[in-house]
Amino acid sequence: MPDRNSPILSVSEITRQIKGTLEEGFSNVAVQGEISNFHRHSSGHLYFTLKDERSQIQAVMWRSRAQSLFFTPQEGMKAIARGSITVYEVRGNYQLDVALLQPMGVGELQLAFERLKQKLAAEGLFDEDHKRPLPQYPVRIGIVTSPTGAAIHDIINVIRRRFPSVELVLIPVKVQGTGAAEEIATAIGDLNSLGGIDLMIVGRGGGSLEDLWAFNEEIVARAIYASAIPVVSAVGHEIDFTIADFVADLRAPTPSAAAELVVPDRADIIELLRNFCYTAHRIVEHRLSTDRKAIANLLRSYSFNRPADILRQHLQHLDELQASMEHALSHKVELTRQAVQSLQKRIESVHPRRILDRGYSLVRRDGRIVSRVKFLHPKDDIEIEMSDGRTSAQIEG
Amino acid sequence: MSAKKQADRESHGSFEQALKRLEDIVDQLESGTVPLDEVLKIYEEGVNLSKRCLAELSQAELRIKKMQKDAKGHFEILDGAGDE
Description:
The complex is a heterodimer of chains A (397) and B (84). Chain A has 4 domains: 11-104, CATH 2.40.50.140; 113-127 and 138-264, Rossmann fold; 268-300; 352-394, no CATH class. Chain A has helices at residues 11-25, 63-66, 106-123, 150-162, 180-194, 218-226, 243-247, 255-262, 266-300, 302-349, 352-357, and strands at 29-40, 46-51, 56-61, 78-88, 93-103, 140-145, 167-172, 199-204, 231-235, 250-252, 362-365, 368-369, 381-386, 389-394. Chain A is α/β, with parallel strands linked by helices. Chain A is built from 11 helices and 14 strands. Chain B is of the alpha+beta class. In chain B, strands 1-2 form a two-stranded antiparallel ribbon. Mean pLDDT of chain B is 77; it is low at 1-12. Strand 7 of chain A pairs parallel with strand 1 (63-69) of chain B, so a sheet runs across the interface.
């Protein structure tokens, strides 16, 4: 039976009293349970329910405290929430004001990892067909990482050494702690909006599972999947795979390795260029020598030499003509000479001397031949010529 | 890709294009079907192209920019990684 003498309180009064009792009695509690109905308000405050088989309790984590959270609480994740019970007077309900939220052991994070991995795999975010090839010779490379971490220095060093003909565009982000995943996801989107980026490296140096957790967040996975620019993930030190690694177009074990993978080695290109010069030079030399040989062969060829041959034959014919002409001429001369000789003989045969040889004599008076006796007178001086000479005589008186 | 970005890219001298062109040139030279004056022309082009690339490679200095968003969400590109 209710006590009729109890003092009558207003709703506010009773609420205030309950608030005082509860908040005093549960000012420092640690509650373990399964997270459900998780909701991040745009104000940055987190609202969720912690439950077990029989009960549940509302929980809130204010933005300032949510900063320390390295993971996004997931549905079904078992966690330990530390904080105090507070009463929300407006609604008259109590809630757990969480100062610190931790997954119940690393196993819980691994479970969360596996759950997300299965979910995204089922959605096709890891499909090989979706992976884009990296450009062989990038010009601008986006880098999403911490401006103070070892990763950016490693990347800069490797690229400077291997292939400095590129531009790096760094988007500085937090790579661990609350909001890191959101910053990384936003940066991936921003690089896509900026344009002119050939590929991007998203990553950080090695660390614990908690340190690397941002790269296991769904929001990062979805941003990588949505990126039109090929993404190379570069998280941690080799052994650990993150969700980002599965979605990325290429997974590099470390930031240095990512830098090695995205740019060629300039020594290789120099070798390639030298090789080109050598090969091209050799081909051109060979071509020139082949052409020279072809020309020489052509010059020696039958058909090319035909005109010269014809000319030579004409020359030879000409020589022959000339020779026969000379021959004909000398023959003619000989005949003429012989004719002349015969005439000469004939002329000589009628020469007066031939008569003298036969015993005749010639008589001359005053140098003139006297051919009749009747022309001679007594006492005429005459000259008698015989074959062997001349002598003088006088006609008798 | 916008005209400006295209021009920007070409001024960087895309190795991809240069090496592709050099491959083409070697293929053409090797084919043996190119007339001699063309052979000499593309050979000269190839030699000049590779010289340019070699010069670019040996002189190149890594350019590092940092992109930030201002309060209005506009991008701002600054020189250097900032924290080096």
